[in-house]
Write a structure and sequence with these properties.
The complex is a heterodimer of chains A (about 230) and B (about 290).
Chain A: E1 5-14, E2 17-27, E3 32-36, H1 43-50, E4 61-63, E5 66-67, H2 73-79, E6 81-84, H3 96-102, H4 114-120, H5 122-126, H6 137-149, E7 155-159, H7 167-181, E8 186-190, H8 194-200, E9 203-208, E10 211-217, H9 223-231
Parallel strand pairs in A: 3-8, 3-9, 6-7, 7-8
Antiparallel strand pairs in A: 1-2, 1-4, 4-5, 9-10
Helix pairs in contact in A: 3-6
Chain B: H1 2-29, H2 36-56, H3 62-86, H4 97-118, E1 134-136, E2 142-144, H5 145-167, H6 169-179, H7 181-186, H8 191-216, H9 224-238, H10 243-263, H11 268-282
Antiparallel strand pairs in B: 1-2
Helix pairs in contact in B: 1-5, 1-8, 1-9, 1-10, 2-3, 2-4, 2-8, 2-9, 3-8, 5-6, 5-8, 6-8, 9-10, 9-11, 10-11
The chains are: A alpha/beta (about 230), B mainly alpha (about 290).
Chain lengths: ~230, ~290
């Protein structure tokens, strides 16, 4: 089967500093893949490279049979890859509803609309007129997910959904993920909580210092294998 | 006293038009256009040149003036768009110095270009008597028709800009790129295009201010820096990036200047500067900071 999204020998740099060292990655249609790893392992940089926020060579990333490496972020989202960024990064001067509508700027057809999102996260409908940043951390995360879904993506990239959230809120957020993926959505979740990553995904990639240290089916990897790849010991 | 306040309000309307473009550009791009005043004067001279050209063709009436003003709107829009897209976008970044240096350079270029083309002689736009017409009010008061029209234009322009910012898809794009350019691009926006559109709209306001200034009084190529000062003061008193704040700041500046002029004809401008400095010291963020929905 040809992968829907594929990175081949992906490298990325911040100025002179190299952050990714030849990442090989495959994502098949309809599956959820988790990326785990410690701080500075290159997980977020990898997602930024996939979405065009960090430059890469054209032939290093293929999506739906076409090379997309080096394309600007706006072009990549129009092709169907959306990112829920680390730290939510809502637009401070926009209301909840306006933040969600920003996701629809790419104007891709699909099932996601404001009404559909308000069914998934009913609390957002009640708070639609408030500034996005006036919400609790969990509610802000819902807005960030909703904003990405409004572009009706084929692939949803989620960067550390649980960052800075209480366990009960994390559960609420991750409980919504199966409903999102039930539509055939393909997803990549970057997560530091290994147990959560194993539960939510079919396959896992473990990054370490900008390289893939381990990969395999989520239910077949042992704690020892993951610990060794995660910590490098 | 009532007359002084009234004249101050009307003068503030003109200052508001000087400042709105600056407020828009700063609100969206954090770009301080130090050539703002010179672009206003360029607008005045563009109108004067257009009317002279039509007069040379035998068209020397109110309709010709209207045609020139109408033609200036798309010209200013296109000029602002091109300037931002191909010159000023290259200066944007965390360091504000490149944009300051480039717009300062543009200011010098415009002043010298206008001197070369039009000489240092003051000129004005023919209004057919509109600039001397007045309306008589009760209690022996009178206000000029043109200043009143300028105030109305300032009021409408401020309201329209605030509506554009808060009530339209383009305004949402302006606010989004202002908040977080990187994430806005992830939503499918091209920040360079959004910036260019913001400057294009700012330049329509600049051209409007230039034409009205040329109708109200005489203009000369060296007038720009003083107009920039008034624009700066109005924007900073009102709060950077807030349109109604800019409007309020401009009115406050106009009123304080008029009070100064009433005390002594030589005091008006510097009393305005003193009020500006007091606001800067006591409330550096301005009276109504940042445009919000």
């Amino acid at each position: 089967m040809t992968a829907l999204l594929q990175a081949s020998g992906l490298t990325a740099f911040y100025g002179d500093a190299q952050a990714l060292f030849g990442i090989d990655f495959e994502l098949n249609a309809g599956e959820t893949v988790a990326i785990i790893g410690g701080n500075g392992a290159g997980k977020s940089t990898f997602l930024k490279a996939l979405t065009g926020l960090v430059r890469s060579r054209p032939d290093q990333i293929r999506f739906d049979g076409e090379t997309i490496g080096g394309l600007p972020p706006g072009e990549i989202v129009k092709r169907g890859i959306a990112l829920v960024p680390e730290g939510r990064r809502l637009f401070a001067s926009l209301s909840v509803e306006e933040n969600l509508l920003m996701g629809a700027f790419a104007q891709r057809p699909g099932p996601w609309s404001l009404q559909r999102l308000f069914k998934l996260f009913p609390i957002l409908e009640q708070k639609r007129a408030l500034p996005g940043t006036a919400l609790s951390g969990g509610q802000q995360q819902m807005v960030a997910i909703g904003r990405a879904l409004m572009s009706n993506p084929t692939v949803l990239l989620c960067d550390e959904l649980s960052l800075g959230l209480a366990p009960i809120v994390i559960k609420e957020i991750y409980d919504a993920l199966p409903a999102i993926c039930a539509e055939g959505m393909t997803a990549v979740i970057v997560e530091q909580d290994v147990s959560m990553a194993q539960r939510m995904s079919r396959r896992i990639y473990c990054f370490q210092e900008g390289r893939v240290a381990l990969q395999g089916a989520s239910d077949s990897l042992t704690r020892e294998q993951i610990s060794q790849a995660y910590f490098g010991v | 006293m009532v007359e002084t306040l009234l004249q101050g309000l009307l003068l503030g309307g003109l200052y508001c038009l000087f400042a709105l473009g600056q407020s828009l550009m700063f609100g969206v791009m954090r770009l301080t256009n130090t050539a703002q005043g010179d672009f206003i004067i360029l607008g005045s001279f563009a109108a004067i040149a257009g009317m002279n050209a039509l007069a040379a063709l035998g068209w020397n009436n109110g309709f010709a003036s209207f045609l020139v003003m109408l033609a200036l709107v798309p010209l200013a829009f296109a000029f602002g768009y091109a300037l931002q897209r191909w010159v000023l976008n290259g200066t944007l970044g965390r360091d504000p110095l490149p944009s300051l240096v480039v717009t300062f350079g543009l200011s010098i270029v415009i002043q010298n270009l206008l001197l070369e083309l039009f000489s240092a002689d003051p000129r004005s736009i023919e209004t057919g008597g509109l600039n001397t017409a007045s309306i008589t009010l009760p209690a022996g008061l009178a206000i000029g028709v043109l200043p009143l029209a300028i105030f109305a234009v300032a009021l409408v322009a401020t309201g329209a800009l605030q509506w554009l910012f808060n009530g339209t898809r383009l305004g949402r794009a302006f606010r989004a790129v202002s908040d977080d350019k990187e994430i806005a691009e992830l939503m499918g926006l091209n920040s360079n295009t959004v910036y260019a559109l913001a400057t294009a709209i700012a330049f329509v306001l600049i051209a409007l201010a230039g034409v009205l200034q040329g109708m109200r009084t005489t203009v000369s190529p060296a007038d720009g820096p003083l107009l920039l000062l008034f624009a700066f003061e109005a924007v900073i008193i009102g709060g950077m990036g807030s349109f109604w704040g800019t409007f309020a700041g401009a009115l406050l500046l106009g009123i304080t200047q008029q009070i100064g002029f009433r005390i002594d004809p030589g005091w008006g401008i510097w009393i305005g500067h003193v009020v500006f400095l007091i606001v800067l010291v006591l409330r550096p963020q301005g009276l109504f900071p940042k445009t919000r929905g």
